[in-house]
């Protein structure tokens, strides 16, 4: 079943999450129509390879054209219209930057996998629950409603100012008319009546001026309250969601909605500012004793300018945190002299600002690092697929400066992976007589000089963004706080769902919890230290918990990914639990688990029954990435043989726990059929008999002496003869054996 088919079977609450990240950048129609083709392409690799991304983009357009031809024959007018629009989008927006569409599709597929993993979990984790709080959603709706109401109020006040201007022009005309009359005419009864009418008009003007100023004051007050409370909370929530998304959590949305709110508020404030300027103009043409304009206008204008300053300062955000294109799922870890990308956005989208704001990027203030490459760029609305006012730095490189002694600080294999740095950005906005200096910073980043430092650096990023909301605490690791175990386990599951396409279930998380704490504990109450997670070695081992887990992630990603995604690898289960699960099962039932003693190793254990009826368990020596590079794991499971003393070799693996026939579980992942070889060529001596690798173990009976390594590889001639006799000599030239421990 395709991933998209699985998504369509989700409950409505999960489908709503899927709906949030499909938009005009990558329409859902294309995801639906081209589901299998899209899932068969390597978008993640294309996101880091422009040539590959261009080929995939061209192939995507070809696929759209084929769909367009099909629906044209069916005369489906709506679908024809949508496909033509999508084709235009793909050619127009992504032709100059094909890696962008690769990043978008890769993110969508990864987020689908995360949601599928979350749907398979019995309960949501505490972090994800907090991000989907109904109170937060209600506040979002309230903010949008209030912004819309403020915009309407500002527009209505415009009409009041226009009425006031018209009334004052009429008063001015009639007053000047009277002033132009001769003195005798001014004493007439009609003129006296006109003077009384003018006085009434002046009273109305005074009332209207006070009314307009009052309405302007209310609009300003509403904006102030909204910015101080709900809008600030919305922005902080978005930044927190971004933190969580960076460490594998749900993709964070809502920035477009925030941009709409910020833009409407800015437009309303500038509208109010123009209204105050118009009142000043009216003041120069007419004033009187008790005139409210000269008293109230300066205070209101000062408040408007203050709000504009704050609104602009809060609107300058890092839309996409620093990330090396070579490691898209490890943001905020930067390697010296390797390019990284970072994207900023101004949430106030005004046409007057297009290409008018130049942003400068710097790093830290301690002068230990400098940024090489293009570090000054103009914000514009053309590069971003959604037309936002943004700038993306794509060619920045951190470089460590030499110390006074001529050597580099900590660069090298021992660079401190708990040392936090910050990428800072500054710019200046000049608009309608206002000059506003803007500054913002990325979330803390970790610098490395060698890829071997990446796992520990990523652990630092995880811990920081899990344990604190503070976006700029660069001294965090001077005294790192503990984390709640329940939240940490949730984040660890995200590492698997985002990096290898399938999260962890409650049983797997229980095993990790016991490994972290050494005991069975309550998730909600237990506080885990940073040292326990990443600094202290596991009991009896030469490595930390995180190094062990990271090695497993790497093993899955590079060697057993399809089997992991299918859910056939139990993985995280202790030897004790393993025996409990297998002891009552049919002989030949096996399960797959990750080694607890070998880094990046996977083993399988099966249950067997002795002649006297006793149950016994066998675990093969763990396979690591070196051995799996030579032979796919699915083929190992298919071809694995055991020789009991001098008996016939046979495959002991029959059923994947609990009772799935082995070939049913892994058949689609076999690379070829065993013993399926071609005949030697007609060239006689020039032809070769093809060879295959067969994993073989030898189990000695109870009376035999324990086997030594020399018994395992190479095999003795007699054992090899038995193997050739029963497995076809044309199919086997070499056999690879693996040590088997009898448990």
UniProtKB/TrEMBL annotation:
Pfam families: SH2, STAT_alpha, STAT_bind, STAT_int, STAT_linker. It comes from the Eukaryota. The keyword DNA-binding applies. Keywords: Acetylation, Activator, ADP-ribosylation, Coiled coil, Cytoplasm, DNA-binding, Isopeptide bond, Methylation, Nucleus, Phosphoprotein, SH2 domain, Transcription, Transcription regulation, Ubl conjugation. PROSITE patterns: SH2. Residues 564-666 form the SH2 domain. Belongs to the transcription factor STAT family. This is Signal transducer and activator of transcription. It comes from Drymodes brunneopygia.
